[in-house]
Write a structure and sequence with these properties.
The complex is a heterotrimer of chains A (648), B (99) and C (279). Chain B has 99 residues and is mainly α. Chain B contains three helices and no strands. Chain B is elongated. Chain C is mostly helical and 279 residues long. Chain C has three domains: 1-95, NADH-ubiquinone/plastoquinone oxidoreductase chain 6, subunit NuoJ (Four Helix Bundle (Hemerythrin (Met), subunit A)), CATH 1.20.120; 145-185; 194-278, no CATH class. Chain C starts with a helix and ends with a helix. Classes of the chains: A mainly alpha (648), B mainly alpha (99), C mainly alpha (279).
């Protein structure tokens, strides 16, 4: 069984190699090959999963040592895999959702002539992501970490003919570099502290290291997680990443890659448990991000960007839960999985809507689509109910558990975190209801529309769209797109309940992440009631705002908060003012310094010596009498020196 | 009178000779100035010889004279040759050692 | 000044009044001679001044009891060396190098500075040195040791300093041979005939016709005045090479050139041609 682990990674890697190197002869079959290899990976994962179920708790983890990568005395880097319950969860999520999205992409990318390349990139992403979660040491994890970053860059910028897509890809890559730097520093620190970076030795010996070191490692890991998972302050790239094709947004920027940060924190739980300061920072980042993302999501008119804000917010929940320690790890991962289902479903639904609406993304130009695309409406609606935490659906269970865990953090911290998560739940309900109403209910606002107005600055009209300004004809998507949506909708509805059946998921993960029951200061039913109340409040406000009166096609000016939220709460302006301008000032002043001080010193020295030698050269005039003067001068100096020595 | 005065006179003559070397361009006059300096040195030797009651100083002066005579012979020969080839007795004209 | 007095003065810590007078008078003359050597424009005058200074120095040697050196000074220096200088002077003749005009910028001031500094330092050094009268011995005893100055010197020269003496003898021989070698010019090739010179002149295309004979373009009949070419510029070629190299050309002044122009103008006026016709 151990040897199957490598195949998990090898299958999509083979697909990527074949598709990217295979050339045009694979154009007609390449997408099926890619999908088949992703499905193969999923099947292998399922086999391993059932094999794992056949063993008991502690024995479930599998290891496979492929080869020694850097066999140097004092520095042993191995290519080795570790498949435990946590990795297994991710493997099933990645390969399962990944396979579905491969299937969906066949229909979605049908008219794109670079579809083969797209599937190659998707397979590359799957391979890198599986490497990330299967690695048994931080260095190999780093390889996967960089691999998914590369795949993300390639896929965001897949439509590279659009300047906005190319810019967004670069932005994602550059912002991720900041986080990657954190991860590499964390690995350096681990190596100097523990002498190794394999999970086993590092995590077992974590409590033996000094708390200061652990706090530093934890903060660096958090920085890495912030970069990859779009948490404050490295969140700015996720919104722009929606420039990529919608399946990419669903797979990479909703379901899997952006949750790598949560995986990293959960995996390194032993380090964070021993560094309370780092944990406090983690929950702070999570709480800030969940509100930040929710507020941004409330203001966006671009359906994908609204969902991106939502993703940010939900990952905030996960990071917050992961920062709570053993009471939260399992809930973070559970929410991660259910979020993977319903957010992927929502994105696929959004893609389906865009597919039927000539790639229009402005929700203000949707409306009343439920009659035209019923399957999309139903699946999207189920995902919607799941994410807002409608009782009985996935999101209800996982989010409710996180809110309980947040209240259990104890003291003021517990109340603050609990309040933030509750408020986040209300905001989630508000913005998702807004998306739902704007898209599927109300009057159709896409009829009798002359041309795409420049009212939505977020939207870059694609070449295809600007080619046909005709009125869109909304239609249901082909079966290859609806089947994945239906499957994901099932996941959105039932996953939470299944996981929570007798705390199955918690017990499943307990050997890896350890678990403590949260003990909130107020009774659990009260919290649940408060959550449901907040949710209903959010839905009600959104209904009152968007369903009771007609929605203007052109967005109203809005309040200051709305306007800043449309600009992603000024995050780009902040980055520009602080880092870009600051960096430019720094470089300019450094260039100035270089020109004046360094060059000045160098050139000045050269000029001084040049001038000096020019003058000294005049001494060498060839006249014996001039030399004689020097000689007599020297003689005089010698006499003076002699007399002085005698006098002393 | 203190015989040290001879030394002062010698110093004066030496300095005048040195100045001559430095400011005259005619090689022959430069040579004469050098002879003047040598003679000034001889005068000090003779004066010291008297002060210390020792003939060694005079012997030394004698050798200086011999060497000076040899030097004059060779030096004047060089000047004559220079004049033949360059048609000038100016020390400044022989300034080939510059850039 | 009697011999006894001289002997006494040579022994005494302080010299006699006579010697003092002699020193001051001759010392002034010696300095004047030295200054003349350095400052007089003509080399012959310099040489004569130097000869005078050397004679005075010979007298000082005698006064200091160095009788042998005094005589040698007169015979060798004033007699032989200075005559050699005069011979060479006659050989070289007057040159432009005699000019006292300084050509190197700042040389004079630097030289004066160095010389003054050196003088002050040396004189100060002598003043500082412990050469008081208590150290004064006098040459009398040393001279009397072997029955006189000359036997005393001879005794030392041929015993203690005999090696140095022989080496200086060798030095003198070498100097004489060297000087002979330097100034000797052996003709190593056949002298060129007039025909060969003419052929080479044509081949080099310089002065294809023979040089102008003296007085061809001359307006004056002295040999040191260059003739004027048809455009009025002086031609150096018309003056003897020796005079040219000695710098003994007589300058053709502006008045001569003006004179030529005036003659031209008068000629033109006589012929009744206008200004522009001459242009």
């Amino acid at each position: 069984m151990d040897s199957l682990i490598g195949l998990l990674v090898a299958a999509p890697l083979l697909g990527a190699a074949v598709l990217l190197c295979g050339g045009r002869r694979l154009d007609r079959t390449g997408h099926w090959l890619g999908t088949a290899l992703a499905a193969t990976s999923f099947v292998i994962g399922a086999v391993l999963f059932f094999d794992m179920l056949g063993r008991e708790g502690e024995d479930r983890a599998l290891h496979q040592h492929l080869f020694s990568w850097v066999p140097v005395q004092g520095f042993q880097a191995d290519v080795a895999f570790q498949l435990d319950q946590l990795s297994m969860t991710f493997v099933l999520l990645i390969t399962g959702v990944g396979s579905l999205i491969h299937l969906y992409s066949i229909g979605y990318m049908e008219h794109d002539e670079r579809r083969r390349r797209f599937f190659g990139y998707l397979n590359l992403f799957l391979a890198a992501m599986l490497l990330l979660v299967l690695a048994d040491n931080y260095l190999l994890l780093y390889v996967g970490w960089e691999g998914v970053g590369l795949a993300s860059f390639l896929l965001i910028g897949f439509w590279q003919h659009k300047p906005s897509a190319a810019t967004a890809a670069k932005k994602a890559f550059i912002v991720n570099r900041v986080g990657d730097m954190g991860l590499s520093i964390a690995i350096f620190l681990m190596f100097t502290t523990f002498g190794t970076f394999a999970f086993g030795p590092v995590l077992e010996n974590a409590d033996r290291a000094g708390e200061g070191t652990l706090t530093a490692i934890g903060l660096m890991l958090l920085l890495a997680a912030c970069g990859k998972s779009a948490q404050v302050p490295l969140q700015s790239w996720l919104g722009d990443a929606m420039e990529g094709p919608t399946p990419v947004s669903a797979l990479i920027h909703a379901a899997t890659m952006v949750t790598a940060g949560v995986y990293l924190i959960t995996r390194s739980g032993a380090i964070f448990d021993a560094a309370p300061t780092a944990q406090t920072v983690v929950v702070t980042v999570g709480a800030v991000t969940l509100l930040f993302g929710a507020i941004v999501g409330c203001a966006k008119d671009d359906i994908k960007k609204a969902l991106a804000g939502s993703t940010m917010s939900q990952i905030g929940y996960m990071v917050l839960a992961a920062g709570l320690g053993p009471i939260g790890y399992a809930f973070a991962i559970m929410h991660l999985v259910t979020h993977g289902f319903f957010k992927a479903g929502l994105f696929l639904g959004a893609g389906s809507v865009m597919h039927g609406m000539n790639d229009e993304v402005d929700m203000r130009k949707y409306g009343g689509l439920r009659r035209y695309m019923p399957v999309t409406f139903v699946t999207f609606g189920l995902g919607y109910l799941a994410i807002i935490g409608f009782p009985g659906l996935s999101g209800f269970f996982s989010k409710d558990l996180i809110i309980e865990a947040a209240f259990s953090a104890g003291g003021v911290q517990g109340w603050v975190l609990g309040g933030a998560t509750l408020l986040g739940a209300g905001l989630t309900a508000y913005y998702m209801t807004r998306v739902m109403i704007l898209t599927f209910f109300g009057e159709p606002r896409w009829k009798n529309r002359p041309a795409p107005s420049p009212a939505s600055p977020d939207v870059e009209p694609s070449a295809q769209e600007s080619g046909e300004h005709a009125e869109p004809h909304p239609h249901e998507s082909p079966r290859s797109m609806t089947i994945p949506m239906i499957v994901l909708a099932f996941g959105s509805v039932f996953a939470g309940g299944l996981f929570n059946w007798g705390e199955a998921f918690v017990h499943w993960l307990e050997p890896v992440t350890s678990f403590e029951h949260p003990h909130p200061p107020i009774p659990i039913p009260v919290i649940t009631a408060a959550t449901v109340t907040m949710m209903l409040l959010g839905v009600g406000v959104a209904w009152a705002q968007y369903a009771r009166r007609p929605v203007p096609v052109v967005a109203p000016r809005g309040s200051l908060l709305t306007r800043s939220a449309r600009r992603d709460l000024l995050q780009d302006d902040f980055n520009h003012a602080v880092f870009v301008s600051g960096g430019q000032h720094l470089t300019r002043s450094l260039v100035y310094l270089d020109h004046t001080v360094v060059d000045g010193a160098v050139n000045g020295t050269a000029a001084a010596f040049g001038g000096l030698s020019g003058r000294m050269r005049k001494l060498q005039n060839g006249f014996a009498r001039s030399y004689a003067v020097s000689m007599f001068g020297g003689a005089a100096v010698l006499v003076a020196a002699t007399l002085l020595m005698r006098a002393v | 009178m203190n015989p040290v005065n001879y030394l002062y006179l010698a110093a004066l003559l030496f300095t005048i000779g040195a100045t001559g070397v430095l400011i005259r361009r005619n090689a022959i006059i430069v040579f004469m100035s050098i002879e003047l300096m040598l003679n000034a040195a001889n005068l000090t030797l003779v004066a010291f010889s008297r002060m210390h009651g020792n003939l060694d100083g005079q012997i030394m002066a004698f050798f200086v004279m011999v060497v000076a005579a040899a030097e004059v012979v060779v030096g004047l020969a060089i000047i004559v040759m220079l004049y033949r080839s360059r048609h000038s007795a100016s020390v400044d004209d022989a300034s080939l050692m510059k850039l | 000044m009697s011999t006894a007095a001289t002997a006494a003065s040579l022994l005494a810590a302080d010299t006699s009044t006579g010697e003092a007078v002699q020193f001051y008078v001759l010392g002034v003359l010696a300095v004047a001679g030295a200054l003349g050597t350095v400052l007089l424009r003509r080399a012959v005058h310099s040489a004569l001044c130097l000869a005078g200074t050397m004679v005075i120095l010979a007298l000082f040697y005698l006064a200091n009891g160095a009788y042998f050196l005094g005589v040698v000074q007169i015979v060798v220096y004033t007699g032989a060396v200075m005559m050699l200088f005069l011979f060479v002077l006659m050989l070289v003749g007057r040159t432009t190098a005699d000019s006292l005009k300084e050509t190197i910028k700042g040389q004079r001031w630097l030289a004066l500075g160095c010389a003054l500094g050196l003088a002050m330092l040396v004189i100060g050094g002598i003043g500082q040195a412990t050469l008081g009268s208590e150290a004064f011995v006098g040459i009398g005893a040393a001279n009397a040791e072997f029955g006189g100055n000359v036997p005393g010197i001879a005794e030392r020269l041929f015993t203690e300093y005999v090696v140095a003496f022989e080496v200086t003898g060798a030095l003198l021989t070498i100097a004489a041979v060297g000087a002979t070698l330097l100034t000797h010019r052996e003709r190593t090739e056949k002298a060129r005939t007039q025909r060969e010179q003419a052929i080479e002149r044509v081949r080099l295309n310089q002065h294809v016709p023979p040089l102008p004979a003296p007085g061809v373009y001359a307006r004056h009949n002295s040999v040191d005045r260059p003739g004027l070419l048809p455009d009025g510029t002086p031609s150096e070629l018309t003056v003897n090479q020796t005079l040219r190299e000695r710098g003994q050309l007589r300058e053709v002044g502006q008045e001569q050139l003006a004179e030529v122009a005036a003659i031209d103008k008068r000629t033109a006026d006589y012929h009744g041609r206008g200004e522009e016709a001459r242009q």
